[in-house]
Amino acid sequence: MHRTREILRQKWHLGRSHREVAASVGVSVGVVSKTVTRAHSAGLDWYHVEQLDDGQLSLRLYGERDLSDPTRPEPDCAWLHHERQKRGVTLELLHLEYLQVHPNGYKYTQFCQRYRRWLTSCPAFLVDSVA
After folding, report:
1. In whole angstroms, what is the distance from residue 72 CA to residue 105 CA?
2. What pTM was computed for the model?
3. DSSP 3-state assignment of 28?
4. CA dist 49 to 93, 105, 111, Å?
5. Whether the Cβ atoms of residue 12 and residue 3 lie closer than 8 Å to each other
6. Residues 83, 86: Cα–Cα separation, whole Å
7. Distance between alpha carbon 21 and the CA centroid of its chain, in Å?
C-alpha cells in the first residue's frame, strides 16, 4: 500500500506527470495510470486517501480478497506427473491443457506451485509408481 499511497500523493498532491511518478516510485507508467484510474473509480481524492489507513485504502481500491474460491479445480497432480514422463511434455503444456478444461483454473505460477508441493508431500514410492 505504501507504493499506491505514494503514487496518489505524487499525482494529486504534487501534481506530477505519470512518467515522473513512475520514475520516482520505481513502477511502470501503466501501473501509475491503473492506480489513479482505480482510485478515481472508487471515488477517492487525495483528502480521502490521507484519512484512510492502509487496510481501508486497500479495501476501497481492491475490495476484499476471497481466498476460498471453490470454483478453481485442483490440478490432478498424479496425472500431471505421469504425463510429464512423456517426451516433450512440459508443465507449461499441461497447464494449457488444464486451462482448456478449466478456464477459471489456476494461473501458471499457482499451478506449478501446487504440483511441486504435491511432489514434496508424496512418498517417493508413490511418485515412482505413478511414473
Report:
1. 5
2. 0.52
3. coil
4. 44, 34, 36
5. no
6. 6
7. 23
Q: DSSP assignment, residue 89?
A: -
Residue of 72, 128, 127, 76 whose CA lies nearest to 103: 72
Please give the radius of gyration of the chain, using alpha carbons only, rounded to the nearest integer: 22
User: Helix/strand/coil (H, E, C) string of 39-52?
Assistant: HHHCCCCHHHHHHC
Are 21 and 10 in contact by the 8 Å Cβ rule? The answer is yes
Q: Which single residue is written with the C-alpha cell 501503466?
A: 30
Spatial separation of the C-alpha atoms in residues 124 and 108, rounded to whole Å: 25
| Cell reading at 29 | 507508467
- pLDDT, tens digit only, all 131 positions of the chain: 789 999 999 999 999 999 999 999 999 999 999 999 999 999 999 999 999 998 898 888 887 765 555 678 999 999 999 999 999 999 999 999 999 998 888 999 999 999 999 988 876 655 555 54
Angle at 81 between CA 79 and CA 87, to 5 degrees: 110
Torsion on CA atoms 34, 36, 41, 47, rounded to nearest 10: 160
